[in-house]
Amino acid sequence: MIEILLATYNGERFLPEQLESITSQSFKDYYILASDDNSSDCTFEILRSYESVLGEKIKVVQSNTHSAKENFYNLLDMADAEYIALCDQDDFWESDRLKKSLKAIQRLEKRYGKETPILVHSGLGDSG
Q1: What is the largest CA-CA distance in the chain?
Q2: Which of 15, 112, 113, 122 sits in a 20 to 30 Å window from 103, CA-based?
């Protein structure tokens, strides 16, 4: 399972497209943990609407950190999956992003072991 950490703040303009790109992933063993940092637009309501559709595939919380960094730190504190993907509200993911990222991580784990922290950055034209 991959836990997707999505930190938001006033992202209503981008959020629906990002959430659709996540739900359209070819790799389906994921869980979304979304934290909205007290947005003044409809961001939180959009997240809640996806919560009602996706059910247990998403959990939405509201924070009051006033900082993107702190919002992500809070999400990292809540995360408990073996694999984590960080996600910005204005990202758009290709449909195979999670699959390619997990494949790259597992390849590196074979080389360096699971005890070694591994970061795979995707989305900048890499071939996976």
Answers
A1: 46
A2: 15
